[in-house]
Amino acid sequence: MSPERRARPRRRLRPAEERGLLRWLTIAVALAATGLNATLFLQIGLGQMSPGEVQDAIVSAVSGLFPGSGLQAPSQLPSPSPGRGVATSGGS
Fold it and tell me: Has residue 49 been placed in a domain?
């Protein structure tokens, strides 16, 4: 910020500008609170479900949004491979 700008007193906002700023701030806070609420709700719900139930819920949601997709849950869940897992990294 330039020294001239710092030396000048700040212009006071007009009432219409204050209302617009307050409206924008209120909407932003309400959207953030709604998003946080939905995230916490999903996190708690997913924590109480088994992996198969989570997959069924996702398939159900996608089928509800896109009825003609023909998406179905697999008949059985994948099983873990026997033995020790192998860790890989993207580095070379």
Answer: yes
Which amino acid appears at position 57 of this protein? A
Residue 68: DSSP 8-state: G
The radius of gyration computed from the CA coordinates of the chain, to the nearest angstrom, equals 26
* Host domain of residue 32: 15-63
The token duo for 15 is 């009432």
pLDDT band at 82 (very low <50, low <70, confident <90, very high): confident
Cα–Cα distance between 55 and 52 in angstroms, integer?
5
Find the Cα–Cα–Cα–Cα dihedral 18, 19, 25, 26, rounded to 10°.
Answer: 150
> How many domains in the chain?
1
Q: Taking residues 79-91, what's their average pLDDT? A: 70
The amino acid that residue 82 corresponds to is P
pTM given for the model:
0.44
